[in-house]
Amino acid sequence: MQLFSCPFCGPRDETEFLFGAEAGKRRPEPAAEVSARAWGEHLHFAGNPKGPAREIWLHLTCGEFFAMERDTVSHAVSATRALRGGGQ
Amino acid sequence: MKGRYSAFALLREGVRGHTGWRPAWRSPEPKPRYDAVIVGGGGHGLAAAYYLARNHGITDVAVVEKGWLGGGNTGRNTSTIRSNYFYPESVALYDFSLKLYEGLSRALNYNVMFSQRGVLTVAHSPAEMEIAARTVNAMQLNGTDAELLDREAVLAKAPLLNTADAARFPVFGGTWQGRAGVARHDAVAWGYARAADALGVDIVQGCEVTGFVVENGRCAGVETSRGTIRAGAVGLATAGHSSVMAEKAGFSLPIRSYSLQAMVSEPVKPCLDTVVLYPGTGTYLFQSDKGEIVFGGGIDRTPSYAQRGNPPMQQAVVSGLLEMFPAFGQLKLMRQWAGVVDVVPDSSPIIGPSPLPGLYLDCGWGTGGFKAIPAGGWLLAHLIATGEHHAISRPFDLDRFAAGRLIDEAAGSGIAH
What we know:
heterodimer, A: mainly beta, four-stranded antiparallel β-sheet, B: D-Amino Acid Oxidase, Chain A, domain 2, 18 strands, globular
């Protein structure tokens, strides 16, 4: 069982967490000018990096989203931080 | 030219002390140029090379593989072959593959041990029986075989299923596809490799693709750890590493890579002669020819390129097995492993031209690529040879994500990949 560190609750079992998305994805705006291709890419496409990754995760038990930096091959977590300066 | 395998050849070699067998394929140095290069020496890549040669007469083909032949998901999957999908596009694709599997041993002169022992999907409640009836109706309308079974019929097919009153997921009935089954996964890779080699295809193992040659906005070959190989067209059949390849080619894909694990028990005497899936537990299993119980479940929860599984999913899968077959609690777990699968939002594959002209995709099979090896290879070969879609692959083009015309099999058939 791997432990992930929630910025608000500390180290918890990986089963308490849900992967959300890659960090840095922005909803394309304004909606009226977004092409079907750009919207499809925003919804479905992913960098899916092998190695170091920055991701948004949800801690299901406290309900907070946060950023996690980890390696997708070794699964080592290098940092977790709150999205808007909160947390410990 | 190597001889054909036959009962006579087996007898002859038995008498001669097996001294006359030749390697099933060559290990050539890569040439500087081919008409077509396939990246990925798993089932899909080898099948594509074989069908390029056999269906289209294009024999100046190389398959480049960074590791060893069939060492990725082809050698790691649980080898189930079925076409019990919901949408017409999916059944057309997977039933095409199932039909090719039905004649594959003869076509390749290689026994892939396709055993059509049927797939049983259990329903646990009256509501699930209604969905099961809908699935069976859809499959029959789409032209493949399917039957709706009641509880007695399910228990007749798998008598060891959990019949306790306190069962968390009781048996109400189920669906049955009798033409489905399992095959020997290594044999599928080896059979295609041998047949492709005999037609002149070069299979180059230990050759990692590090980049793509792009000229005038078109893919003109691959850079590899063993030098540049130029090509008229390039096919990509790299499963869980498709995003890594796409990044080298300058585009991204709607794919996320996850570990999918599988396990086997110690071998026991024959006790289960079908493939069984429980939607309630997400666990599925069959008994191998050696007697091992081969079982697996859903993907791990963490995006990953590690070819190993995490303990929480292993626990969930083993718990699921014991819920389904309490008697199997006596068995020892012998091995556990994982492969990296390429999961697409609508749980359907991506087959078609890539954003880089001259580079063609056969990826996104998620947890279900083995069953589609003959079809994936056939359709990728068609794309490379003609530059056009086959009618069966057209709905699975990358353009469906911009068009919003998804083929959502996770929602359609409840299959979790």
